[in-house]
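User: I'm putting together notes for a lab meeting next week and I want to include a structural view of one of the chains we've been expressing. I don't have a solved structure, so I'd like a prediction I can at least talk through. The sequence is below, exactly as it appears in our construct file.
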Amino acid sequence: MASSMSLKWCKKNLQKYSQPVYELLQEENPDLNMEVEDCVDCCGLCTDVPFALRNNAIISARDARGLYVKLKQGTSFMTKPPLPGTYAAVMMDSRMGSKEPAAGNAER
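Assistant: Thanks for the context. Below is the predicted structure for the 108-residue chain, given as structure tokens.
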């Protein structure tokens, strides 16, 4: 499934804290859009805690494991089926053809 989510990583932060998280997410989600930049303009943060930018929002944690958990929760929508009644579920049903009987054709 194509994703509109992107992750940006600070090169310095990768070297200091986040490299294992980056590699694990890349392995688990090869279609995830991830970029490594020399600087993501989060001065000071890159030397303090592991972090990444998810769709330009800062996601940080105390350690690499915490960052992985937060980022993994944010990518779970790509692997789990959509919740019934949501727009994504309706769109998926319309593409696959609904397998539910029509309201007028229900068995009694």
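A couple of points you could mention at the meeting. Helices lie at 11-28, 64-75, 87-96. The longest strand covers residues 6-10.

User: Perfect, that's what I needed.
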